[in-house]
Amino acid sequence: MDSHLDQVLVEFTCKNQPKPSLPTEWALCGEREDRLEVLKVSTFALVISPGDGQLVASAGCSMRLFEALEVGAIPVVLGDHSKLPYHHLVRWSEAVIMVPKPRITELHFLLRSISDNDLLAMRRQGRFLWETYFSTSESIFSTILASVRTSIQIPAAPIREEPAQEIPHKAGKLAGTDANMADNGDLDLGPVEVEPPYASPRFLRNFTYTAADVYHTWNRAPGPFHLFPHTPLDPVLPSEAKFLGSGTGFRPIGGGSGGSGKEFQAALGGNVPREQFTVVMLTYEREEVLMNSLERLNGLPYLNKVVVVWNSPKPPSDDLLWPDIGLPIVVVRTEKNSLNNRFLPWDAVETEAILSIDDDAHLRHDEIMFGFRVWREARDRIVGFPGRFHAWDVNHQSWLYNSNYSCELSMVLTGAAFFHKYYAYLYSYVMPQAIRDMVDEYINCEDIAMNFLVSHITRKPPIKVTSRWTFRCPGCPQALSHDDSHFHERHKCINFFVKVYGYMPLLYTQFRVDSVLFKTRLPHDKTKCFKFI
C-alpha cells in the first residue's frame, strides 16, 4: 500500500488561543465551525486519549468524538484505556476504531486494511449514534433516562396511540350472499377459526426471558435505543432480538401443530399458534369500490377487525349500507386528507400484525393467509405482494423509482402488505417530519417512506410473496398511480428521502416466497403448506 495516496492533516500549533484542557490531553484548536469543515472532507478523525492512564474520559476527547460522529468521520481513538459514553450499552466497535498507543506505528496499515463497505457502514453507524443519543439536549436527556431505566429494569412507558374517532355506520345485507364476491382462491381454508376476535396479548413479559424467546412484542414506547439493531439496550437480550428498547421483552414461542394437509390448514401452527391480524384500509370517496372490497373480506381467517381510514372530508352517505362480515368494521374520521393517515397507530388496532391494503386492491383469501404466515416468521420485515425497486441513473446522477419486471426488488408497496404496528408508531412520531411533509405535498410516496424506514431500522430488504405483479380490481376507477406525474414524483421522493437519511437505506433481494409444495402434484385431499425457498 502506497502511503503517498493518503492525505494527513496534523496541526501542532493553534492559529488562535486553544481551548482550556487537562495537562495530559491535547487541546482543541480553532473554532468549531472550522473543525467541522475539515472533518467533513475527512474519512478518519484522530482522538488521542489523555496521557493519564487513570483518566478514562475527558471533555476534550468527548468533543472530538462527537464532532467526528456529527459529520460522518470515523473516530480513531488512540488509547484503549478510554471509556466511551454508554460503553456498556452501545457497541462502539461498529462506529469507532480503538488502537492501543503502543501500536501507533501500525495505525496507517490498520486504517488502509478496512474495506470501503466497512468504512461506509461505520460512518453511517457513527452518524446514527450521534443523531440518536447526542445531537440535542432532549436526546441526551432521553439517553440518560433510558440508560438508568435499563440498568434497574424499569419498563418504558406505553407507546402513544392515535385515538380513533369512529364514524357511526349501519350494516346492510349479510356479506357472502353474492356468489360473485367469493374469492378464496384454489385453497379450501376450512373452519380455521371458531373463536371471537381477540387482541394480541400485551405485556407478556418484562425483562425476563428464556432461551426459547425469539419474537419481540412492541407495545411500549422506546427510549433512544430503539431505531437500530446494532445498539443494544440490554446486555442480556438474546442475539435474535432485532428491535430494542420496547420494554416488553419477548413473545414466548409456542409449539407448532405440525402435520400436513387438513391438519396444517386447520391451524396457524408455527411458533405462535394463536394470533390474528387487523386490516387497515385507506379510502377516499369511492364508496362502491370500498363496499366490494369489504365484502370480499367476509370469512377471512384470523381477521380481528377492519379499520377503514376515511380520508375524505365528506362523511359517508346516509343511505350507505355497509356489509356485515361478522367482524367489527371501525370507520375512523381523519383531521385532513393525508396518505400518512394510513400509518397512524390507531388505538382501534389491537393486534401486532397490520395488513395495510388499498380500497381497490384485489387479493384472494389464500394469498392473504399465505402472506400472514410468512410475516409471522419475519415479524421485523414488510411482507407483501407488489414489488418495486430503485436504480441509480448514471446520466443524471440520481436515484430512480422503477416498477418494471426485474430479478431484484427493494420495496414492497404497502397498498397490500403486512407490517408490525410498532412501525406505525415510528413512522408517525419518530421518522423525520420532513418526510411526512413531502408525502402530504405530493399526495404520494408514503409507501416508499415506510420501506425506507423499515430498511433503515432492520438493514434488511422486504419480503415479496406470490408471483402476481398487480392487484388492482377490474373495473375500479382509475387510481392516482396511472398518472404520468406519479412516477416523476416518486423519483423526487426517493432522492429527497436519501438526503434526509444521509444514505440509501433500501436493500435489494433476489427471491420471493412460495409454498413448499408450489406447483407440486398432490392427492386431492392434501393441502399446501408453506416455507421459505
UniProtKB/TrEMBL annotation:
Species the sequence originates in: Sinocyclocheilus grahami
Record pathway: Glycan metabolism; heparan sulfate biosynthesis
Cofactor: Mn(2+)
Assembly behavior: Homodimer; disulfide-linked. Interacts with REG3A.
Keywords from the UniProt entry: Disulfide bond, Endoplasmic reticulum, Glycoprotein, Glycosyltransferase, Golgi apparatus, Manganese, Membrane, Metal-binding, Signal-anchor, Transferase, Transmembrane, Transmembrane helix
Lineage: Eukaryota, Metazoa, Chordata, Craniata, Vertebrata
Subcellular location per the Swiss-Prot or TrEMBL entry: Endoplasmic reticulum membrane; Golgi apparatus
GO biological process, alphabetically ordered: heparan sulfate proteoglycan biosynthetic process; negative regulation of inflammatory response to wounding; negative regulation of keratinocyte differentiation; positive regulation of keratinocyte proliferation; positive regulation of phosphatidylinositol 3-kinase/protein kinase B signal transduction
Domain Exostosin GT47, chain residue ranges per copy: 32-114
Bilayer topology annotation: Single-pass type II membrane protein
The protein's enzyme class: transferase
Family: Belongs to the glycosyltransferase 47 family.
Reaction catalyzed: 3-O-(beta-D-GlcA-(1->3)-beta-D-Gal-(1->3)-beta-D-Gal-(1->4)-beta-D-Xyl)-L-seryl-[protein] + UDP-N-acetyl-alpha-D-glucosamine = 3-O-(alpha-D-GlcNAc-(1->4)-beta-D-GlcA-(1->3)-beta-D-Gal-(1->3)-beta-D-Gal-(1->4)-beta-D-Xyl)-L-seryl-[protein] + UDP + H(+)
GO molecular function: glucuronyl-galactosyl-proteoglycan 4-alpha-N-acetylglucosaminyltransferase activity; metal ion binding; protein-hormone receptor activity
Lineage: superkingdom: Eukaryota
SUPFAM superfamilies the record matches: Nucleotide-diphospho-sugar transferases (SSF53448)
Pfam families associated with the record: Exostosin_GT47, Glyco_transf_64
Gene: LOC107548434
Function text: Receptor for REG3A, REG3B and REG3G, induces the activation of downstream signaling pathways such as PI3K-AKT or RAS-RAF-MEK-ERK signaling pathway. Required for the function of REG3A in regulating keratinocyte proliferation and differentiation. Required for the inhibition of skin inflammation mediated by REG3A through the activation of PI3K-AKT-STAT3 pathway. Required for the function of REG3A and REG3G in glucose tolerance in pancreas.
PANTHER family from the UniProt entry: ACETYLGLUCOSAMINYLTRANSFERASE (PTHR48261), EXOSTOSIN LIKE GLYCOSYLTRANSFERASE 3 (PTHR48261:SF4)
InterPro entries the record matches: Exostosin, Exostosin_GT47, GT64_dom, Nucleotide-diphossugar_trans
EC number: 2.4.1.223
Residue ranges constituting the Glycosyl transferase domain according to the UniProt record: 277-518
Bilayer-crossing regions: none
GO cellular component, one term: Golgi apparatus
Name of the featured protein: Exostosin-like 3
Chief localization: endoplasmic reticulum
